[in-house]
Structure formats: C-alpha cells, structure tokens
Amino acid sequence: MNDYILTLSCPDRTGIVHNVSGWLLGLDGNIIDAQQFGDLETERFFLRVHFMLPSAMSVEALEHSFAPVAQRFGMQARIYDAQRKSRLLLLVSRQGHCLNDLLFRAHSGQLPVAIAGIVSNHTDYARMAAAYRIPFHHLPVTPETRPQQEQQILDLVEKENVDLVVLARYMQILSDDLCRKLTGRAINIHHSFLPSFKGARPYHQAHARGVKIIGATAHYVTADLDEGPIIEQDIERVDHSMSPQDLTQVGSDVESLVLARAVRWHVEHRILLNGQRTVVFK
Ligand SMILES: Nc1nc2c(c(=O)[nH]1)N[C@@H](CN(C=O)c1ccc(C(=O)N[C@@H](CCC(=O)O)C(=O)O)cc1)CN2
C-alpha cells in the first residue's frame, strides 16, 4: 500500500491546510486521516495527515516535493513511509514487566515494530531475549564507566539503525550528552503519576504519603530527570491496606500499558513536540 504520513508544525496562520491539500491533489493523493490543532497560547499549528498515492514514491522525493510549501510557512515537516517498521532498542535493568510486554506485542504483531536489540546493565533478561531470538547486550555501568558504556549504547543505535530507544525500567540516569543525541527518540516509563514522586523509588514515596491513586507516566527523556515532555499517563486506585510491594504490583500493569501506548503513538508518528509539551493525535 502506497501510504505515507505527513507531520508538521508551524506558526499558525490562514492557508496552511489549503496549501497542504493542494500539494496532495497535485500528486493525486487521497487523505485517509487528518488531524490538526492550533495552540492559541503558542500560536503554533500542528497537523498530521495519513494519505495514499496511486503509485509509490520515495520519502526523499516526497519531502523534496513538499519543501516549497514547508519553506513558505516556516514548517518543521517530516514525511514517513507508513508501512516501514520502526526499529527499537530496549533498555532494562532488573524489573522486566515492561520489557516482557513490549516483546510479546512486537512478536505477536500487535505493535508494528522491529526490536533491534536489548541492552541491560544486568543479565536477568538474557534468556528472555534468547527466547525471542533478539540480540542481548550486557553493558554494566558504574559512575566511572558511564561515558564508555553510553558510547556503546550510541554505537548500537548507529549500527542497528535504531529509530527509538525505549527505557523499559532502565534505572540509570543518562548523561546530558546522551540525552542531547537522543532528543525526541528516547522514551522512558516513570513509575508514578508525574509530577508526583520523581526519582528511583516512587512507590515507597507514594506509600509514605498515603495516596489513594497511583499511576505511571511515559515521557521523552531529557537531561532533567523525570521532566521530559509527557506522552501518556494512567492511574489505578489503591488503599490503606496496600504495602509498597502491593503498590509495585498494581503499578506494574499500569506501567506496561502506558509505555505500550506511548511507543505505538510514537512509531505511528502521532506525537508532535510543542515546547516542553506534546500534541498527540490519537
Ligand atoms: N537523563 C535521564 N535519564 C533517565 C531518566 C530521565 O528522565 N532522564 N529517567 C530514568 C528512569 N527513572 C525514573 O523513571 C529513574 C531511574 C534511576 C534513578 C536513579 O536515581 N538512579 C540511580 C541509581 C539507581 C540504581 O542503581 O538502582 C543513579 O543513576 O544514580 C532515578 C529515576 C532513566 N534515566
């Protein structure tokens, strides 16, 4: 199927959709789905169009053809082949529920992705990786070896042509340099309803505070810990009888669902950055 996705953001003004649809008409293109949002506060416009063409064209040729429209409106525009599977690198430490969930969704075809590899600073999930026939990279790290270990991660991203790095309960803080190099292509699952309970032990913090609702947050990774643009959140009710371990158990299911949704929306090119926030065309 010759279908593609156009995403763009630009200063808001009249004529944007008219010019985009005119460009599509010139290619004899047919719109399958279109969603837009005008942010009155930032005066920026956001658009996602899923369209079909009568015959195949390369993404490069399409982006070249669209360039005059993009320049006229000062757009940040990208075009993607809707049939291409994004390549993921999954990072995990000791908690494997999110990793397990993503591996099964990819294996069963629920999630249209290719898993290029799994990286861990421990060996707990080497056998799970082998069961799915996915390369496992054991990259231990200490504060002293963090630069070299992070270079190994970057080398894998380059070598395996990775589109998205997923921190599936990877419990090491990435350096500013690595975050900069992975801007907009690294998603983390934080095991709390941000901005509450940042850090490594949110369920213990939640228990101590006596909350009645816990949650999980998927966000793009930035140098500022747990501060990246939020993609998705969800919650679950809890009560006084539940220990930190009980909260961890209940929360793990929420984490897996929230991360899977965020990864799906990213690889379907449904997320656009709007400063420190996101626009998500579900
Ligand atoms: N630059 C960033 N790196 C990471 C982020 C992020 O938002 N920006 N998120 C974390 C995940 N995370 C919470 O979701 C988290 C992970 C680890 C820690 C932490 O304090 N780690 C300690 C070591 C803990 C351990 O070894 O168990 C540390 O790194 O010194 C806080 C929050 C992933 N990375």
Tag the structure with descriptive keywords.
Alpha-Beta Plaits, alpha/beta, seven-stranded mixed β-sheet, binds ligand LMY7XDAE, purine biosynthesis, four-stranded antiparallel β-sheet, Rossmann fold, about 35% helix, globular, 8 helices, about 280 residues
What features would you describe in this structure?
This protein is α/β, with parallel strands linked by helices and 282 residues long. It folds into two domains: 3-81, ACT domain (Alpha-Beta Plaits); 86-280, Formyl transferase, N-terminal domain (Rossmann fold, 3-Layer(aba) Sandwich). 34% of the residues lie in helices and 30% in strands. It has eight helices and 13 strands. A seven-stranded mixed sheet has the order 7-6-5-8-9-10-11, sandwiched between helices. The protein has a four-stranded antiparallel sheet with strand order 2-3-1-4, with helices on one face. The mean pLDDT is 98. Residues 167, 170-174, 179, 188, 190, 199-200, 221, 223, 225-226, 228 line the site of ligand LMY7XDAE. The ligand Nc1nc2c(c(=O)[nH]1)N[C@@H](CN(C=O)c1ccc(C(=O)N[C@@H](CCC(=O)O)C(=O)O)cc1)CN2 binds next to strand 9.
In short, what is this structure?
One of its GO terms (molecular function) is formyltetrahydrofolate deformylase activity. The active site is at 226. With 282 residues, the protein is an alpha/beta fold.
Q: Could you give a short account of the major beta sheet? A: 7 strands, mixed
CATH class of the largest domain: Alpha Beta
User: What Rg, in angstroms, do the CA atoms define?
Assistant: 20 Å
Number of helices: 8
Shape: globular
Q: How many domains, in number, for the residues?
A: 2
Spans where pLDDT lies below 50 across 5 or more residues: none
User: How large a portion of the residues is in β-strands, by DSSP E?
Assistant: 25-35%
Number of strands: 13
Question: What is the third-level CATH name, the topology of the largest domain?
Answer: Rossmann fold
Bound molecules: ligand LMY7XDAE
The H/E string reads EHEEHEEHEHEHEHEHEEHEE
Distance between the termini: 22 Å
Q: Write out the CATH superfamily name of the largest domain.
A: Formyl transferase, N-terminal domain
Question: What percent of residues adopt helix (DSSP H or I)?
Answer: 25-40%
The CATH architecture of the largest domain: 3-Layer(aba) Sandwich
Provide mean pLDDT, rounded.
98
